[in-house]
Design goal:
By secondary structure, the protein is an alpha+beta fold. Helix content is 24%, strand content 33%. Strands 1, 2, 3, 4, 5, 6, 7 and 8 form an 8-stranded mixed β-sheet that branches. A hairpin with a 6-residue loop joins strand 7 and strand 8. The radius of gyration is 16 Å and the shape is globular. It starts with 7 loop residues before the first strand and ends in a 10-residue tail after the last strand.
């Protein structure tokens, strides 16, 4: 049974660095890289916390002009499929609405079916393909969430590229 625990979304701080590095072992993000991100005026970093687990997920994004580019979305392996990434995406969309952002962009491995399903369920659509984007030559799907410039509501859109290879 998948018990949902309360998740709190906060801005990342220096005290979170070790927990965030531990979550994203695959990407090999370092504390130094995270500190550098925290210093960039365009960088936005959020963490998800659970009372008994501490930091369990994070998002790193760049806010440039009227776009928010999600660079990294990761959840601790033992806390996946508990709605935590969805809660983080909700915070991202809330920020996008408040800051009058028109597009939230990301790249995702073409083979990452779980992440693609999550993004699609949150109204992201596939708009492009970056061939051999990752160091292991896997393709990346470019996905976008559009917000109406006036109403700030999500604008549904159909995929513009095939999700399968």
């Amino acid at each position: 049974m998948n018990m949902r625990r309360p998740v709190r979304i906060d801005l990342m701080n220096e005290g979170d660095l070790a927990a965030v590095v531990a979550i994203d072992v695959a990407a090999k993000v370092t504390s130094e890289q995270l500190l550098a991100e925290m210093q960039r005026p365009w960088s936005r970093l959020w963490v998800a916390r659970e009372d008994e687990h501490g930091v369990v997920a994070f998002v790193i994004a760049w806010h440039v002009a009227e776009e928010l580019h999600l660079l990294n979305v990761a959840t601790r392996v033992d806390r996946r499929r508990h709605g935590i990434a969805r809660a983080l995406l909700g915070e991202v969309v809330k920020y996008a609405r408040t800051e009058r952002i028109n597009h939230v962009l990301l790249e995702v491995r073409r083979s990452n079916r779980a992440a693609i399903a999550l993004y699609r369920s949150e109204a992201f659509f596939a708009m492009g393909l970056r061939s051999r984007y990752y160091p292991d030559d896997e393709d990346a799907l470019e996905m976008v969430l559009r917000l109406d410039p006036e109403s700030r509501e999500i604008v549904p859109h159909h995929d513009e590229v095939r999700l399968e290879s």
